[in-house]
Amino acid sequence: MDDLTFHDLRHTGQTLAAQTGATLADLMKRLGHSSMAAARRYLHAVDGRDREIAKALSELAAHGDVARLPRHITMRS
């Protein structure tokens, strides 16, 4: 653990925030970033959500009712 730095902890915190559904704007605000490029580096945690998003869109199209979508899909911006 001697190699652990404050930046490592900061990066881990932002990555976990992204995994729990934080938006790009949320990430920017949490660390005071003024550019999207700086905040985007934490979004690697949510790469691959295409399948989940496509499934949610299919559910919406099939049922026409956003209330029937899983809560974690409707809560994300």
TrEMBL record:
The UniProt entry, under Pfam families, shows: Phage_integrase (PF00589)
Q: Which keywords describe this protein according to UniProt?
A: DNA recombination
Q: Which SUPFAM superfamilies match?
A: DNA breaking-rejoining enzymes (SSF56349)
Entries under InterPro entries matching the protein: DNA_brk_join_enz (IPR011010), Integrase-like_cat_sf (IPR013762), Integrase_catalytic (IPR002104)
Highest taxon of source: Bacteria
An annotated Gene Ontology molecular function: DNA binding
Picking any one GO biological process from the record gives: DNA recombination
For the Tyr recombinase domain, which residue ranges apply? 1-55
Protein known as: Tyr recombinase domain-containing protein
